Known about the structure:
The chain is of the alpha/beta class. It has helices at 2-6, 13-24, 30-40, 45-55, 60-81, 95-103, 120-128, 143-147, 171-180; strands at 86-89, 108-113, 135-138, 152-155, 159-161, 164-168, 185-188, 205-209, 215-217.
Amino acid sequence: MIENFKKLTIQGSHEIAEWILENIKNIEDKESILKEMIKLKPEMQVIKWIYKMIKENKDINNIKEILDTTFENTIKNAKKFLNFDAKVMTISNSRTLEYFFKTHNKKLEIYIPESNPGGEGKILYKNLLNYKKNVYLINDFEVHRYIENCDYVIIGADSVGENGVINKVGSKLLAILSKNFNIPFFVIADQTKFTEVVTEKDRMFEIVPNNLITAIISG
């Protein structure tokens, strides 16, 4: 199982959480497996949250229900808060953002950098093509050309702490550019992502400090 877990390199936190819950449901020593997973992906707070739920003797179905509820509430709150037509920029591949964009009934023009290394932005772009007409995949080095015309920037997060959020490398650049062009910078993250303090442990991820964030939308 751990070898298969290591191959989950382009999926977002919510997808990985669903994969974990499905694959550990019939394993007796769930805590040991989860400890190994936490070591491999320390930036993903949702794995620590699952571990905490297991420690509290919550069953898998109950954990799935909580996960789905906070996921759905977060998207509902984001659509209510950002209830207008807009030009938007995001980054990387996020199940939360994917569903936010797919189910939003407003006209959105979405710009997605390729998000290298890894190219996760290409996945989000492909997943949105059949749902939104105005979706554009752009080069990472061209974000400054598009961002100044956006109404807001919105990213997902792997962890949310008192000192900021952790997300794919490149997120901080978007936040800095947003600040420079006076564009609102939002983070969408459900309650499973929240912790006290976030730290960088992987070069593929980085902290976006709170002073660069307009608001964190959760549910």
